[in-house]
Protein backbone atom coordinates (compact mmCIF):
# COMPACT_ATOMS: atom_id res chain seq x y z
CA UNK A 1 0.00 0.00 0.00
CA UNK A 2 1.45 3.42 -0.94
CA UNK A 3 2.21 5.84 1.91
CA UNK A 4 -0.52 8.33 2.94
CA UNK A 5 1.35 11.28 1.45
CA UNK A 6 1.53 9.63 -1.97
CA UNK A 7 -2.15 8.65 -1.82
CA UNK A 8 -2.99 12.27 -0.95
CA UNK A 9 -1.05 13.55 -3.95
CA UNK A 10 -2.74 11.02 -6.21
CA UNK A 11 -6.15 12.24 -5.09
CA UNK A 12 -5.06 15.82 -5.76
CA UNK A 13 -4.14 14.84 -9.32
CA UNK A 14 -7.51 13.16 -9.81
CA UNK A 15 -9.34 16.23 -8.53
CA UNK A 16 -7.33 18.55 -10.79
CA UNK A 17 -7.96 16.32 -13.80
CA UNK A 18 -11.69 16.14 -13.04
CA UNK A 19 -11.92 19.90 -12.57
CA UNK A 20 -10.13 20.63 -15.85
CA UNK A 21 -12.27 18.04 -17.66
CA UNK A 22 -15.47 19.61 -16.36
CA UNK A 23 -14.17 23.07 -17.22
CA UNK A 24 -13.25 21.92 -20.73
CA UNK A 25 -16.58 20.23 -21.42
CA UNK A 26 -18.65 23.10 -20.04
CA UNK A 27 -16.51 26.07 -21.01
CA UNK A 28 -15.30 25.19 -24.50
CA UNK A 29 -18.64 25.98 -26.17
CA UNK A 30 -19.00 29.46 -24.63
CA UNK A 31 -15.35 30.13 -25.45
CA UNK A 32 -16.01 29.33 -29.13
CA UNK A 33 -19.07 31.58 -29.25
CA UNK A 34 -17.20 34.44 -27.58
CA UNK A 35 -14.60 34.22 -30.36
CA UNK A 36 -17.28 34.21 -33.07
CA UNK A 37 -16.55 30.64 -34.07
CA UNK A 38 -18.98 27.74 -34.61
CA UNK A 39 -19.83 25.36 -31.78
CA UNK A 40 -17.50 22.45 -31.20
CA UNK A 41 -18.22 19.05 -32.69
CA UNK A 42 -17.77 15.60 -31.19
CA UNK A 43 -14.11 15.35 -32.24
CA UNK A 44 -13.30 18.53 -30.31
CA UNK A 45 -14.89 17.21 -27.12
CA UNK A 46 -13.10 13.88 -27.54
CA UNK A 47 -9.79 15.76 -27.75
CA UNK A 48 -10.72 17.67 -24.58
CA UNK A 49 -11.32 14.36 -22.79
CA UNK A 50 -8.08 12.86 -24.13
CA UNK A 51 -6.14 15.93 -22.99
CA UNK A 52 -7.59 16.10 -19.46
CA UNK A 53 -8.05 12.49 -18.32
CA UNK A 54 -4.29 11.58 -18.30
CA UNK A 55 -3.68 14.41 -15.83
CA UNK A 56 -5.00 12.08 -13.12
CA UNK A 57 -1.70 10.16 -13.49
CA UNK A 58 0.57 13.14 -14.06
CA UNK A 59 2.74 12.50 -10.97
CA UNK A 60 3.10 8.78 -11.63
CA UNK A 61 3.76 9.10 -15.36
CA UNK A 62 4.68 12.74 -16.06
CA UNK A 63 6.34 12.13 -19.44
CA UNK A 64 3.53 9.94 -20.79
CA UNK A 65 0.95 12.45 -19.60
CA UNK A 66 2.96 15.24 -21.21
CA UNK A 67 3.07 13.37 -24.53
CA UNK A 68 -0.63 12.39 -24.64
CA UNK A 69 -1.94 15.75 -23.44
CA UNK A 70 0.46 17.70 -25.66
CA UNK A 71 -0.50 15.75 -28.78
CA UNK A 72 -4.22 16.11 -28.03
CA UNK A 73 -3.94 19.87 -27.50
CA UNK A 74 -1.86 20.37 -30.65
CA UNK A 75 -4.36 18.32 -32.67
CA UNK A 76 -7.12 20.51 -31.25
CA UNK A 77 -5.23 23.63 -32.33
CA UNK A 78 -4.35 22.26 -35.79
CA UNK A 79 -7.99 21.35 -36.51
CA UNK A 80 -8.96 24.99 -36.06
CA UNK A 81 -11.15 24.73 -32.97
CA UNK A 82 -11.58 27.79 -30.80
CA UNK A 83 -8.97 28.37 -28.13
CA UNK A 84 -10.41 27.42 -24.78
CA UNK A 85 -9.98 25.58 -21.47
CA UNK A 86 -8.07 22.73 -23.12
CA UNK A 87 -4.96 24.92 -23.05
CA UNK A 88 -4.94 24.72 -19.23
CA UNK A 89 -4.47 20.95 -19.53
CA UNK A 90 -1.37 21.60 -21.60
CA UNK A 91 -0.13 24.05 -18.97
CA UNK A 92 -0.45 21.49 -16.14
CA UNK A 93 1.16 18.66 -18.13
CA UNK A 94 4.14 20.76 -19.22
CA UNK A 95 4.75 22.17 -15.74
CA UNK A 96 4.63 18.75 -14.06
CA UNK A 97 6.98 17.17 -16.58
CA UNK A 98 9.49 20.04 -16.36
CA UNK A 99 9.48 19.95 -12.55
CA UNK A 100 10.01 16.17 -12.39
CA UNK A 101 12.74 15.62 -15.00
CA UNK A 102 16.26 17.06 -15.23
CA UNK A 103 16.85 19.76 -17.86
CA UNK A 104 18.69 17.33 -20.15
CA UNK A 105 15.38 15.44 -20.53
CA UNK A 106 12.81 18.20 -20.04
CA UNK A 107 14.30 20.80 -22.37
CA UNK A 108 14.39 18.56 -25.50
CA UNK A 109 10.81 17.47 -24.77
CA UNK A 110 9.66 21.09 -24.49
CA UNK A 111 11.52 22.04 -27.68
CA UNK A 112 9.84 19.17 -29.52
CA UNK A 113 6.43 20.32 -28.29
CA UNK A 114 7.22 23.89 -29.35
CA UNK A 115 8.07 22.65 -32.83
CA UNK A 116 4.79 20.73 -32.93
CA UNK A 117 3.02 23.87 -31.70
CA UNK A 118 4.44 25.93 -34.56
CA UNK A 119 3.31 23.31 -37.08
CA UNK A 120 -0.16 23.16 -35.51
CA UNK A 121 -0.57 26.94 -35.63
CA UNK A 122 0.53 27.13 -39.27
CA UNK A 123 -1.78 24.25 -40.24
CA UNK A 124 -4.60 25.98 -38.40
CA UNK A 125 -3.91 29.19 -40.28
CA UNK A 126 -3.93 27.41 -43.62
CA UNK A 127 -7.18 25.62 -42.78
CA UNK A 128 -8.98 28.76 -41.65
CA UNK A 129 -7.63 30.97 -44.41
CA UNK A 130 -5.50 33.04 -42.02
CA UNK A 131 -1.73 33.16 -41.96
CA UNK A 132 -1.50 32.24 -38.26
CA UNK A 133 1.72 34.21 -37.84
CA UNK A 134 0.20 36.36 -35.10
CA UNK A 135 -0.54 33.20 -33.10
CA UNK A 136 3.04 31.89 -33.24
CA UNK A 137 3.82 34.07 -30.22
CA UNK A 138 0.61 33.57 -28.24
CA UNK A 139 0.14 29.80 -28.33
CA UNK A 140 3.77 28.80 -27.51
CA UNK A 141 3.52 30.92 -24.36
CA UNK A 142 1.26 28.18 -22.95
CA UNK A 143 4.26 25.85 -23.30
CA UNK A 144 7.20 28.13 -22.50
CA UNK A 145 5.77 29.69 -19.32
CA UNK A 146 4.92 26.44 -17.48
CA UNK A 147 8.16 24.84 -18.67
CA UNK A 148 10.20 27.72 -17.26
CA UNK A 149 8.25 27.57 -13.99
CA UNK A 150 8.73 23.81 -13.69
CA UNK A 151 12.46 23.97 -14.39
CA UNK A 152 12.83 26.77 -11.84
CA UNK A 153 10.98 24.79 -9.17
CA UNK A 154 13.12 21.73 -9.85
CA UNK A 155 16.35 23.76 -9.71
CA UNK A 156 15.31 25.28 -6.39
CA UNK A 157 14.35 21.87 -5.02
CA UNK A 158 17.73 20.43 -6.04
CA UNK A 159 19.53 23.40 -4.52
CA UNK A 160 17.73 22.97 -1.20
CA UNK A 161 18.39 19.23 -1.26
CA UNK A 162 22.06 19.96 -1.90
CA UNK A 163 22.14 22.29 1.09
CA UNK A 164 20.54 19.63 3.28
CA UNK A 165 23.00 17.00 2.06
CA UNK A 166 25.91 19.34 2.69
CA UNK A 167 24.63 20.04 6.18
CA UNK A 168 24.32 16.32 6.86
CA UNK A 169 27.87 15.77 5.57
CA UNK A 170 29.18 18.54 7.80
CA UNK A 171 27.42 17.08 10.83
CA UNK A 172 28.75 13.59 10.08
CA UNK A 173 32.26 14.94 9.55
CA UNK A 174 32.05 16.88 12.80
CA UNK A 175 30.87 13.76 14.64
CA UNK A 176 33.69 11.67 13.18
CA UNK A 177 36.28 14.28 14.13
CA UNK A 178 34.84 14.55 17.63
CA UNK A 179 34.85 10.78 18.05
CA UNK A 180 38.42 10.48 16.75
CA UNK A 181 39.51 13.26 19.07
CA UNK A 182 37.82 11.72 22.11
CA UNK A 183 39.32 8.29 21.40
CA UNK A 184 42.72 9.89 20.86
CA UNK A 185 42.52 11.79 24.14
CA UNK A 186 41.25 8.88 26.22
CA UNK A 187 43.25 6.02 24.70
CA UNK A 188 46.36 7.97 23.70
CA UNK A 189 46.88 9.38 27.16
CA UNK A 190 46.22 6.02 28.79
CA UNK A 191 48.66 4.17 26.53
CA UNK A 192 51.38 6.74 27.15
CA UNK A 193 51.00 6.38 30.91
CA UNK A 194 50.84 2.58 30.66
CA UNK A 195 54.00 2.48 28.54
CA UNK A 196 55.94 4.59 31.03
CA UNK A 197 54.66 2.62 34.02
CA UNK A 198 55.47 -0.68 32.33
CA UNK A 199 59.00 0.52 31.62
CA UNK A 200 59.43 1.62 35.21
CA UNK A 201 58.10 -1.70 36.52
CA UNK A 202 60.51 -3.69 34.36
CA UNK A 203 63.39 -1.49 35.46
CA UNK A 204 62.86 -2.03 39.21
CA UNK A 205 61.20 -5.44 39.17
CA UNK A 206 64.16 -7.37 40.59
CA UNK A 207 65.55 -4.92 43.14
CA UNK A 208 62.35 -3.13 44.25
CA UNK A 209 59.24 -5.34 43.89
CA UNK A 210 57.16 -2.90 45.93
CA UNK A 211 57.71 -0.06 43.46
CA UNK A 212 57.07 -2.44 40.57
CA UNK A 213 53.79 -3.40 42.20
CA UNK A 214 52.82 0.30 42.44
CA UNK A 215 53.54 0.70 38.73
CA UNK A 216 51.42 -2.33 37.91
CA UNK A 217 48.59 -0.97 40.04
CA UNK A 218 48.82 2.31 38.13
CA UNK A 219 48.73 0.38 34.85
CA UNK A 220 45.60 -1.46 35.96
CA UNK A 221 43.89 1.76 37.06
CA UNK A 222 44.80 3.62 33.88
CA UNK A 223 43.79 0.74 31.62
CA UNK A 224 40.39 0.46 33.35
CA UNK A 225 39.79 4.16 32.88
CA UNK A 226 40.84 4.06 29.23
CA UNK A 227 38.71 1.00 28.51
CA UNK A 228 35.70 2.63 30.14
CA UNK A 229 36.17 5.72 28.01
CA UNK A 230 36.65 3.68 24.85
CA UNK A 231 33.57 1.58 25.62
CA UNK A 232 31.51 4.73 26.10
CA UNK A 233 32.69 6.10 22.74
CA UNK A 234 31.93 2.81 20.96
CA UNK A 235 28.48 2.66 22.53
CA UNK A 236 27.83 6.18 21.30
CA UNK A 237 29.04 5.20 17.83
CA UNK A 238 26.63 2.24 17.77
CA UNK A 239 23.82 4.45 19.03
CA UNK A 240 23.29 2.29 22.12
CA UNK A 241 23.39 4.98 24.78
CA UNK A 242 20.02 6.59 23.98
CA UNK A 243 20.63 9.24 26.59
CA UNK A 244 20.88 13.00 26.51
CA UNK A 245 23.57 12.98 29.21
CA UNK A 246 27.25 13.05 28.23
CA UNK A 247 28.40 9.59 27.15
CA UNK A 248 31.65 9.93 29.13
CA UNK A 249 31.67 11.15 32.72
CA UNK A 250 32.52 14.85 32.61
CA UNK A 251 36.05 15.84 33.47
CA UNK A 252 37.25 19.33 34.24
CA UNK A 253 39.82 21.43 35.99
CA UNK A 254 38.83 19.81 39.28
CA UNK A 255 40.47 16.64 37.94
CA UNK A 256 43.78 18.29 37.01
CA UNK A 257 45.49 17.49 40.38
CA UNK A 258 44.64 13.79 39.95
CA UNK A 259 45.94 13.97 36.38
CA UNK A 260 49.16 15.57 37.60
CA UNK A 261 49.57 12.87 40.24
CA UNK A 262 49.12 10.19 37.60
CA UNK A 263 51.78 11.81 35.43
CA UNK A 264 54.15 12.13 38.40
CA UNK A 265 53.78 8.41 38.99
CA UNK A 266 55.40 7.87 35.59
CA UNK A 267 58.43 9.88 36.65
CA UNK A 268 57.47 13.20 35.06
CA UNK A 269 57.72 16.09 37.56
CA UNK A 270 54.63 18.30 37.24
CA UNK A 271 54.29 21.68 38.95
CA UNK A 272 50.70 22.92 39.39
CA UNK A 273 49.72 26.58 39.63
CA UNK A 274 45.92 26.76 39.75
CA UNK A 275 43.94 29.93 40.38
CA UNK A 276 42.22 30.00 43.77
CA UNK A 277 38.78 30.31 42.16
CA UNK A 278 39.50 27.04 40.32
CA UNK A 279 39.88 24.95 43.43
CA UNK A 280 39.72 21.18 42.93
CA UNK A 281 36.58 20.97 45.05
CA UNK A 282 34.65 23.08 42.56
CA UNK A 283 33.11 21.31 39.55
CA UNK A 284 31.01 23.03 36.94
CA UNK A 285 27.52 21.60 36.49
CA UNK A 286 26.72 20.48 32.97
CA UNK A 287 23.66 22.71 32.85
CA UNK A 288 25.51 25.86 34.03
CA UNK A 289 25.88 27.95 30.91
CA UNK A 290 28.03 30.97 30.21
CA UNK A 291 27.32 33.79 27.80
CA UNK A 292 30.11 32.67 25.50
CA UNK A 293 30.11 30.23 22.61
CA UNK A 294 30.17 27.16 24.85
CA UNK A 295 28.79 26.21 28.24
CA UNK A 296 30.96 26.64 31.29
CA UNK A 297 31.04 22.86 31.59
CA UNK A 298 32.36 22.62 28.03
CA UNK A 299 35.04 25.22 28.71
CA UNK A 300 35.99 23.38 31.90
CA UNK A 301 36.29 20.10 30.01
CA UNK A 302 38.22 21.69 27.14
CA UNK A 303 40.70 23.15 29.63
CA UNK A 304 41.21 19.71 31.18
CA UNK A 305 41.68 18.02 27.80
CA UNK A 306 44.27 20.61 26.78
CA UNK A 307 46.22 20.00 29.99
CA UNK A 308 45.90 16.23 29.52
CA UNK A 309 47.07 16.23 25.91
CA UNK A 310 49.90 18.66 26.63
CA UNK A 311 51.24 16.56 29.50
CA UNK A 312 50.92 13.42 27.37
CA UNK A 313 53.00 15.11 24.66
CA UNK A 314 55.61 16.06 27.25
CA UNK A 315 55.75 12.44 28.36
CA UNK A 316 56.19 11.26 24.78
CA UNK A 317 58.45 13.87 23.21
CA UNK A 318 60.20 16.07 25.77
CA UNK A 319 62.82 13.57 26.92
CA UNK A 320 63.57 11.74 30.19
CA UNK A 321 64.91 14.79 32.07
CA UNK A 322 62.05 17.14 31.24
CA UNK A 323 59.79 18.74 33.80
CA UNK A 324 56.35 20.22 33.20
CA UNK A 325 54.42 23.10 34.69
CA UNK A 326 50.68 23.73 34.47
CA UNK A 327 49.33 27.22 35.05
CA UNK A 328 45.63 28.07 35.00
CA UNK A 329 44.52 31.64 35.57
CA UNK A 330 41.27 33.48 35.18
CA UNK A 331 41.47 37.13 34.16
CA UNK A 332 38.14 38.86 33.68
CA UNK A 333 36.19 36.86 31.14
CA UNK A 334 39.14 34.80 29.96
CA UNK A 335 40.64 31.57 31.23
CA UNK A 336 44.35 31.13 30.54
CA UNK A 337 45.62 27.55 30.38
CA UNK A 338 49.36 27.17 29.94
CA UNK A 339 51.45 24.00 29.93
CA UNK A 340 55.21 24.37 29.53
CA UNK A 341 58.08 21.91 29.69
CA UNK A 342 61.85 22.05 29.89
CA UNK A 343 62.39 19.36 27.30
CA UNK A 344 64.19 19.39 24.00
CA UNK A 345 61.64 21.69 22.36
CA UNK A 346 61.27 21.41 18.60
CA UNK A 347 58.38 22.03 16.27
CA UNK A 348 54.83 20.80 16.71
CA UNK A 349 54.29 17.24 15.54
CA UNK A 350 51.49 16.67 13.01
CA UNK A 351 48.54 14.57 14.10
CA UNK A 352 45.50 14.75 16.33
CA UNK A 353 47.33 16.20 19.33
CA UNK A 354 47.85 19.92 18.78
CA UNK A 355 45.28 20.06 15.97
CA UNK A 356 42.72 18.50 18.31
CA UNK A 357 43.53 20.94 21.11
CA UNK A 358 43.21 23.88 18.74
CA UNK A 359 39.91 22.55 17.46
CA UNK A 360 38.59 22.17 21.00
CA UNK A 361 39.55 25.75 21.83
CA UNK A 362 37.90 27.10 18.69
CA UNK A 363 34.73 25.12 19.44
CA UNK A 364 34.14 27.17 22.60
CA UNK A 365 35.20 30.48 21.06
CA UNK A 366 38.81 30.44 22.25
CA UNK A 367 42.23 30.19 20.66
CA UNK A 368 45.35 28.11 21.19
CA UNK A 369 49.03 28.67 20.50
CA UNK A 370 51.71 25.98 20.60
CA UNK A 371 55.40 26.12 19.83
CA UNK A 372 58.95 26.21 21.17
CA UNK A 373 59.52 28.46 24.18
CA UNK A 374 62.10 31.28 23.86
CA UNK A 375 64.28 29.81 26.63
CA UNK A 376 63.94 26.22 25.48
CA UNK A 377 61.29 23.58 25.88
CA UNK A 378 57.79 23.73 24.49
CA UNK A 379 54.72 25.69 25.56
CA UNK A 380 51.01 25.32 24.89
CA UNK A 381 48.88 28.35 25.73
CA UNK A 382 45.09 28.48 25.40
CA UNK A 383 42.77 31.45 25.92
CA UNK A 384 39.20 30.34 26.62
CA UNK A 385 36.17 32.60 27.13
CA UNK A 386 34.44 32.36 30.51
CA UNK A 387 31.57 34.54 31.66
CA UNK A 388 29.47 34.64 34.77
CA UNK A 389 30.61 33.76 38.24
CA UNK A 390 33.92 32.12 38.83
CA UNK A 391 34.06 28.45 38.17
Give a written overview of the molecule.
This protein has eleven helices and five strands. The chain has 391 residues and is of the alpha+beta class. The protein folds into two domains: 4-139, no CATH class; 251-391, Histidine kinase-like ATPase, C-terminal domain (Heat Shock Protein 90, 2-Layer Sandwich). Strand 1 (270-274), helix 10 (296-317) and strand 2 form a beta-alpha-beta unit. Helix 1 (4-34) runs antiparallel to helix 2, helix 3 runs parallel beside helix 5 and helix 5 runs antiparallel to helix 7 (141-204). This is histidine kinase.
Question: Characteristics of this structure?
Answer:
2 domains; 391 residues; Heat Shock Protein 90; rod-shaped; 5 strands; single chain; EC 2.7.13.3
Q: State the order of secondary-structure elements, H for helix, E for strand.
A: HHHHHHHHHEHEEHEE
- CATH topology description of the largest domain: Heat Shock Protein 90
- Unreliable stretches: 240-248, 280-293
Average pLDDT number: 79
Shape: rod-shaped
The largest β sheet comes out as: 5 strands, mixed
Identify the CATH homologous superfamily of the largest domain.
Histidine kinase-like ATPase, C-terminal domain
What portion of residues belong to β-strands?
5-15%
Distance between the terminal alpha carbons, to the nearest Å? 59 Å
Give the helix/strand class.
Answer: alpha+beta
Enzyme class: transferase
Transmembrane segments: 43-59, 71-98, 104-123
Protein name: histidine kinase
Domain Histidine kinase/HSP90-like ATPase: 299-388
Amino acid sequence: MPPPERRHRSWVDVVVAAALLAFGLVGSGPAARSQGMPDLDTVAYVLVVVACVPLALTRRHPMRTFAVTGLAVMAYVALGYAYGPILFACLVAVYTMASRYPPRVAVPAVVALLGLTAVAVLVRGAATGATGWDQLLDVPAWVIAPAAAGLTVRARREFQAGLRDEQVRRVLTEERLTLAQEVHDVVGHGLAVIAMQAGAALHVLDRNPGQARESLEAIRSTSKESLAGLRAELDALRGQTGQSEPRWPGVGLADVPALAARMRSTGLPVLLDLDACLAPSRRVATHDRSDGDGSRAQVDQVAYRIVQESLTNVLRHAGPKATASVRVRRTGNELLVEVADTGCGGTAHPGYGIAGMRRRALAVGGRLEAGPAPDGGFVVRAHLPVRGSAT
